Amino acid sequence: MAEALAGAVPHEAPRNASLTDWIAVAAGSMGALLATLDISITNSALPQIQGQIGATGTEGTWIATGYLMSEIVMIPLAAWLTRVFGLRRFLIGTALMFTFFSMFCGLSSSLGAMIAGRIGQGFAGGAMIPTAQTIVRTRLPAHQMAIGTTLFGMTAILGPLLGPVIGGWLTENINWRWCFFLNLPISIALITLLLVGLPAEKMNLERFIKADWLGIIGLAMGLSSLTVVLEEGQREHWFDSLLICWLSVTMVVGFFGIALGQLRSATPILNLRLMTNSAFGSVLLIATAVGAGLYGTAYLVPQFLGILSGYNAQQAGSIMLLSGIPAFFVLPLLPRILGRYDLRWLVGIGLLLYWASCFLDTSLTAASVGHDFTVSQLLRGFGQILVMLPLSQLSMRSVQAHEAGDAAGLYNMSRNLGGTIGLALLGVLMDRRSHFHDDMLREGIPANSQLAQDHMASSTASYLAQSGDPSTASLQALTQVASDIAQQAAVMAYNDAFHALGLAMLTCLPLIFILKSRAAQAGSRK
Q: How distant, in Å, are the alpha carbons of 70, 167, 182, 306, 436 from that of 175?
């Protein structure tokens, strides 16, 4: 008995993360929030920015497109640049670059300067998103990773949500330039945390010299061109535009360069071999669809409220903020939920909640206002949490620790690319369905309809009493009827768009059965 007791080896308590580790995680999460926030913070301020820098509505869209174009290129490059320069040196450098270009944007007085500043911002911000996820995967032990995943995952939810709200408030109450000046104190705090939380590392310039330059050039050409084609295609009437045609050719050449890099380089810039892992590939597909839903609803709701309900940016932002309320109630419980329950089922429940929120918004009318979105926004908030946070953890648990940087790049790239594709497809859908419903409504009102004639007579009499001119009154009545038809067609198109986003969530449900269970994840890390 004594020998048995002597031979027994007690189980060691799992190692807990140190204070320095948590500071590093906090720094990474702050940087990711800053980057995701600036994707959409200018959306509410675009009319004021365009007015002051002398840009038309079409030109002003490049303020957002420039950021997205450079960010999506940098995201997959971050893992390689981290290995070249070291994590701390790389992140501090990008934080300084982000601050510089933020100030540059805030002081800009021309469209060219603003677009250049936004491109620089996006390039620096794109580095902060995947590196935050890498810090969580490499600095925290497995039993505490749920907490770090929660902190990182909240940035993906709160960034696009808070961007229009903060941008709208600053624009309405102070000045649109503070959408950029706000980044200065946050960046100072971020750099301080990076200096404290991350150790210094030596540079490895040999990796820079021997890099997959064919793949890097192809990546820059392909992804940046794809983003511009998706963002500007609808406004430029797609292939009727010479710009879109040339960018499409550039995109194909770029993707061909990436493919050659996969074949010729021992360490390609994109580790696409990770996608042969069925569990990780399923995560990427779901992330793409959820990215479309996240950015799509963040576009549709304020657009509906602004155009059809007459809300200003600040009022629309307060409705958008409703979807953030669940986060503050669930956040304290999330680490325990993520650690206790099967992440696959959490993702499935989240997808169903997101579908339900979109389904509720398929019955909008021309009289719908902000409170009609209350239930759907709250459901959407719960759905986003239960999809994004487990999905973020699954993306890291599906790969080995040394693959975390490459996996984070692909995961975040797929989410952002999904958002860009989703917005492009929504633009096409809204345009075509608006025309379709407009034509159907016009065909449904025959000229000899007694109801239509009575309505026209009533409207004409009303306008005649105001103007006293019969021909003018008749023309005004016809214009009003056309406007009413266009408004109803637009509402029906919004309903179709929410229906499409809901279906996209449902189509992802079968993929949860390919995701790894907790036992399989634990086995893969041994």
A: 26, 9, 11, 20, 40
Helix (H) or strand (E) holding 28: helix 19-40
SS3 track for 305-330 = HHHCCCCCHHHHHHHHHHHHHHHHHH
Dihedral sign of CA atoms 269, 274, 280, 286 in order: positive
Q: Could you tell me the pTM of the whole model?
A: 0.76
* Least confident span in 5-9, 77-81, 185-189, 452-456: 5-9
Q: Are 376 and 358 in contact (CB under 8 A)?
A: yes
**Length in residues, the chain:** 526
> CA Rg, the chain, in Å?
26
Number of C-beta neighbours around residue 367 at 10 A? 9
Q: Please work out, in degrees rounded to the nearest 5, the angle formed at the alpha carbon of residue 436 by the alpha carbons of 43 and 234.
A: 35
The CA-atom distances, in angstroms, between 50 and each of 32, 230, 307 are: 27, 22, 18
- CB atoms under 10 Å from CB of 437, counted, come to 20
Predicted local distance difference test score (pLDDT) of residue 98 = 92
Cα separation, 193 vs 475, whole angstroms: 66
Per-residue pLDDT tens over the stretch 165-198: 788 788 878 888 898 998 899 899 999 988 888 8
Tokens 């939920």 found at:
337
Stretch among 154-158, 168-172, 349-353, 380-384 having the lowest mean pLDDT: 154-158
In 3D space, the residue among 161, 159, 135, 162 whose CA is nearest the CA of residue 147 turns out to be 135
